[in-house]
Q: What sequence folds into this?
């Protein structure tokens, strides 16, 4: 896995978009409980994903969970959650015609304003990355 990760070359995305893939990072965990919680996060991005809730889910105290998660995944639980949610937003933008407000709620963000930090408009994103060239509706 580590050799494959070094050999993969990603294209540079416009608009300051992250080069991170939450799904690839989920494969990096070596410890069973961390891999389990990473998979659960990816499937439940709108749930309560606080460190306390995630630690309870795998039967650990929050401090130990945070340390083990950082050791196994190479990033903090909060960073992983943010990357997972952003990845879910990206997929929803590319694969659906849902308005931004609905996508934000579906992916665990407080609202569309949270997503506007991305330096591209919804129309530009869908124009560049959508296979079916979905219309930009807000």
A:
């Amino acid at each position: 896995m580590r050799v494959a990760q070094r050999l993969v070359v990603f294209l540079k995305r416009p608009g300051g978009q992250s080069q991170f893939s939450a799904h690839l990072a989920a494969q990096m965990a070596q410890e069973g409980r961390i891999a389990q919680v990473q998979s659960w996060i990816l499937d439940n991005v709108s749930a309560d994903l606080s460190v306390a809730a995630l630690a309870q889910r795998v039967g650990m105290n929050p401090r130990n969970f945070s340390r083990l998660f950082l050791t196994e995944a190479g990033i903090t639980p909060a960073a992983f959650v943010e990357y997972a949610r952003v990845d879910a937003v990206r997929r929803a933008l590319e694969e659906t015609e849902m308005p931004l407000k609905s996508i934000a709620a579906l992916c665990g963000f407080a609202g569309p304003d949270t997503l506007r930090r991305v330096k591209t408009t919804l129309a530009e994103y869908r124009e560049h990355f959508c296979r079916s060239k979905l219309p930009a509706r807000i």
About this structure: Residues 9-17, 132-138 have pLDDT under 50 and may be disordered. The radius of gyration is 16 Å. The chain is about 60% helix and 0% strand.
